[in-house]
Design brief:
Mean pLDDT of chain B: 92
Radius of gyration of chain A: 13 Å
Shape of chain A: globular
Distance between the termini of chain B: 37 Å
Structural class of chain B: mainly beta
Number of strands of chain B: 11
Number of strands of chain A: 11
Order of helices and strands of chain B: EEEEEEEEEEE
Largest interface: A-B, 26 and 26 residues
Largest sheet of chain A: 6 strands, mixed
Oligomer: heterodimer
């Protein structure tokens, strides 16, 4: 079952602006990951944040995690047209099954 | 990063035929592989988890006789859609995880169209 809910479902911004996507989940987790998918392609891992971390950075990406609210956000700063893609959060659940359950995704369009 | 190769990228077949999709980890040993299905503009739905040398574990609602998964080696898993029907048309994506890794590496997906 899909436990992640993301909002917004779609986001359209101008190049240079920041894009923020949110993800909520229902069960306890060991970690939360963000992935990117270009249309008709597989997913690419962006960043992983552990349940005992609150914030993590990687280049123009900033991820926050609030386990009390069971939510995470992905911020892309100074967006580029090449950032246009769908972004998914994924949670592993605390049962250490190794399975990742993906959210519904946010489709980001960055206009040049 | 690690590379996962998935073939074919696109297949069109007649109703009633079987289709095999291959997923290979090219530069690492994939102890676990996952098969997902994705409908247009939707999220990924986990179909099954396969561990090398053992039977796949299917998610609730996924017919194991319909979607045959074989993980015969540490670098290869296959998904066979048996007696495909138009409702099986979808985008199928495999992913692989190495031992001790928390990240998944994805294949580029297979678009299956059943006529």
């Amino acid at each position: 079952s899909q436990q992640g809910e993301e909002d917004p479902q779609a986001l359209s911004i101008q190049e240079g602006e920041n894009a923020t996507m949110n993800c909520s989940y229902k069960t306890s987790i060991n970690n939360l990951q963000w992935y990117r998918q270009n249309s008709g392609r597989g997913l690419v891992h962006l960043i992983l944040i552990r349940s005992n971390e609150r914030e993590k950075h990687s280049g123009r990406l900033r991820v926050t995690l609030d386990t009390s609210k069971k939510s995470s956000s992905l911020l892309i700063t100074a967006s580029r047209a090449a950032d246009t893609a769908s972004y998914f959060c994924a949670t592993d659940g605390s049962g250490n099954t190794g399975k990742l359950i993906f959210g519904q995704g946010t489709t980001l369009q960055v206009k040049p | 990063g690690a590379v996962v190769s998935q073939h074919p990228s696109r297949v069109i077949c007649k109703s009633g035929t079987s289709v095999k999709i291959e997923c290979r980890s090219l530069d690492f040993q994939a102890t676990t592989m996952f098969w997902y299905r994705q409908f247009p503009k939707k999220s990924l739905m986990l179909m099954a988890t396969s561990n090398e040398g053992s039977k796949a574990t299917y998610e609730q609602g996924v017919e194991k006789d319909k979607f045959l998964i074989n993980h015969a080696s540490l670098t290869l898993s296959t998904l066979t859609v048996t007696s495909a029907h138009p409702e099986d048309s979808s985008f199928y994506i495999c992913s692989a995880r190495g031992q001790g890794s928390e990240k998944l590496f994805f294949g580029s997906g297979t678009q299956l169209s059943v006529l």
